[in-house]
User: Fold this.
Amino acid sequence: MIVNLRGLSRTEFPQSVRKAAFRRCCDASGQPHCETCGCELNGRSGTIYEHVTPDGLQGEPTLENCRVHCKTCADVKTFTEDNPRMQKADRVLKHTFNLERSKQKIRSRGFAKFAAQRTATRPIRKWSPAIEAEQ
Assistant:
């Protein structure tokens, strides 16, 4: 399980904010465009509403914090900007509350060392009545 110190709740954009952001990204003819790369979107099904400041870093679900992206731009922003920033925030919080793992090597005597067994080179003599008779 991944520990997240920033909280478990996630706030989505309300429908009124999504509608206003969708109207903002439409051109004069009514065709929606990605606000990052400018490519045409496939109506409402191809639009992704992305936080400018990630929700995990106290980004509010307001119109100023909402951008309409295509799938490619949303993935690039998520994996190159948002995830590293949130991972760093987690590291800082863990360091602040002293929740880091110990980096010292565990000091112990370890397991006892046994002498090497070199009996595999001798022929194995199993017990049999014929061997008893020889001796």
The chain has a mean pLDDT of 82. Helices lie at 15-25, 71-96, 129-134. The first helix runs from residue 15 to 25.
